[in-house]
Amino acid sequence: MQCAVIAFPGSNRDRDMIAAVTKIAGKPPHVVWHKDSELPQADVIILPGGFSYGDYLRSGAIAARSPMMKEVARAAERGVSILGVCNGFQILTEAGLLPGTLMRNASLKFVCRTIELEVVNAATRFTGLYRPGQIIRNPVAHHDGNYFVDDDTLARIEGNEQVAFRYANGTNPNGSRHDIAGVLNARKNVLGMMPHPEDLIEPAHGGTDGRPLFEALLETVAA
Amino acid sequence: MIPNEPPITADLVDAHGIKPDEYQKILDLIGREPSFTELGIFSAMWNEHCSYKSSKRWLKTLPTTGPRVIQGPGENAGVVDIGDGQAVVFKMESHNHPSYIEPYQGAATGVGGILRDIFTMGARPIAAMNALRFGAPEHEKTRHLVSGVVAGVGGYGNSFGVPTVGGEVEFDARYNGNILVNAFAAGLADADKIFYSEAKGVGLPVVYLGAKTGRDGVGGATMASAEFGDDIDQKRPTVQVGDPFTEKRLLDACLELMQTGAVIAIQDMGAAGLTCSAVEMGAKGNLGIELDLDCVPVREENMTAYEMMLSESQERMLMVLHPEKESEARAVFEKWELDFATVGKTTDDLKFRVIWHGTEVANLPIKELGDEAPEYDRPWKVPARPVDEIELVGEHPGIADALLQMIGSPALSSRRWVYEQYDTLIQGNSLQTPGGDAGVVRVDGHPTKALAFSSDVTPRYCEADPFEGGKQAVAECWRNLTATGAEPLAATDNLNFGNPEKRQIMGQLVMAIKGIGEACEALDFPIVSGNVSLYNETNGVGILPTPTIAGVGLIPDHAQMARIGFAAEDQPILLAGALPNWGSHLGQSLYARKFFDRADGAPPPVDLEFERTVGDFVRTLIREGHVGACHDCSDGGLAIALAEMALAGNMGATIHDLDSTDASRAARFFGEDQARYVLTLNAPAGSPAFEVILKRAFDLGIHMSQIGTTGGQSLKLGEARAISLGELRTAHEGWFPTFMAAE
Q1: Do A210 and A201 form a contact (C-beta atoms < 8 A)?
Q2: CATH number of the A3-222 domain
Q3: Average pLDDT over chain B, rounded to an integer
Q4: Which of A152, B330, B590, B649 is an S-S bond match for B565, by CB 3.0 to 4.6 Å?
């Protein structure tokens, strides 16, 4: 199993992600600089959180047009697993690899707190170690996490079971439509999510609810 | 011949904040009239903000050394050994004046500046805190300032990627015209790879790194060294604009560059930008510096030498590099898409020379500009000491109602509205986030070590008695660190006061420093860095004296760390450290203010020797694994401490009736006596292990007794009605969001 984490200027949860992957997979991921034009052989590609290019223009918009993202799109076509967390999710929607867009939080304020998530689709390579309908905790930390799609697309992604996670028990922190916190592409090899599973993988984090996601993702590929 | 346009007039000198006697000093020093650029340079270097001219004499009296101190005050930040070849690098700095004028950018660049101080020394920032003080909630500007400052702190810190793990937010009418924004940052470095600002070697390249220079912030440090008047809105252009994206790249680029061995000296461009950084590097190294401004990367056209020398554009650094590594260094900065320009060289003539358009526009003696700048021994008077005891006349509100009203008040309500706008978790090492006694982060790469951070001061105590208030600020910080199980290592001080040219204000400053010094000495808690912010006055009204103390503690094994939340049912609750007549001090208490409108009396005294005995014992108990939860008693006294512990643990408690009359019960529950901790023990009440602990306390002369038991879903204080956790939480969480939502 090979995992690659792509770093853009302004990425800042790349270190959290690298630490989580290293702890769970037992070896560090490739760290790829956005200007590299060649993606190393990888079975899992992760776009970490942060403020790539300062979130200037629109969050994720500039990074989505970097040379490396062309490689990521090709990898997605080949069926490689791609996980985008927070800013990584924003980049994936800006790159057209996931439906919808992430607008400014309804509160207009940055929000960092622990919320609850319902695992809506547990039959994916990302969520297979959770039970369907399981409620887990996860931290969020973002300014632009308000997931929006038009009605037709919303009906389509709901019908096609592309919603992976939903904010549960009234903890939607940002005004996302249908409480959507994590979305898959139609083929279900690309997942984008606003919450940070990488910051809840060991007892010192106050819980391990984020760990099964990495265990599923990293082990599924190894099997 | 240095051209002199515009001509130097008395008005121009005055507009630069230079007093007539100081101007005479300049004339004597250089033997001629200064050029306009030179006048600007003097105003930048000799203002209060950069030169500490009023406070230096007294700052020198603070204890600044210790077995763990690697670097004390005088560098970009203090450096303290935390074992295993690692060091923690930290400092607190104010950005008060700019934040009042333009709250978002003022606060954001305050955070940016302190982060730069940390990574300039080769440390990766791992934690931040912010001590914020605003005017009365009902003041027309307060909401706007709170909203802007909090968004600015978050906007910069979150994007940069440092967890904000602690801080303070306070309201008082005395900050109506001058808010305080004190930003703290700490970083981690290898103890043998610390970088300093002292230039070494003649003829070496002085290199400019980071963002381009613009006109923003010209004269900012001079602005921060004067009182505010009615013309304050005209000062907006002196506030800098922050770009955390550039700062994050600057961090990555600097740390990468430092690994190449190219860096001889490094200094960030903060207050007074290019001037201050160049002069400090040269003066410290006993070298001259020559700058060629035509090589400075600029983002605006037709900038004059004066503007370039005084610009406070953010995210810039100055370095002296090994010439043979220059191309390697350039490659690092080009990778991160940052500017890299050789703008000058070190010289052996102890002159600070500035060339612009091929002409010399400044030629000044560098030592006198820098470390030999003028100092003052300003006249001061000892403030009158308040009467010790106050008597509260009238009806007491009852313990339960008083608790609900106090915990739902501006002073004591939850700060969740604030800290949820800060990323408290980034880097994945946060063990305790805001809401407890101290923020705690793991030391990355070490299996068990963690660092604790706390920022404290009680300005109303300092106003009543600056000496006791200074002591108390240090003691409370030390106590908060101790309450997590940390060994307090060292502290940074951020001294915010009014106009030092007034004898009573200078008296506050002097006495507070004396108090701080005495406490730091007694608690082996040296001051390793700091900042002084004076002239916090508007139309002649000064702020409350506010010497903020931010401390760092070391937890050797975070498995043995205490938190404030009640952890298990049926645990005995003990009050440790109360003197035999414990819970008697209502002078300067929040209780007396709120229910009796009394702001008089002496603050609670701090017995430093006793403080240390109690704290050392509590820390020992925590490290031995005896403690379920631990919290210090501070603002609002015992009742507030208990309520915070119940809310944090989502578990109630039943407390004994501690006295017999309304007045004496109020003193028990709301008195603010110092050196006290509330803790729960894992050993059941009455068990042999429990008795042994009480015996150990007794043998040390520490009064420690059981005052109640954890459990249930309500908090019952003696005879008062039980308050459900729901009711308590509604009161605690309600005030801030309601206040901010009202327009």
Answers
A1: yes
A2: 3.40.50.880
A3: 93
A4: B649
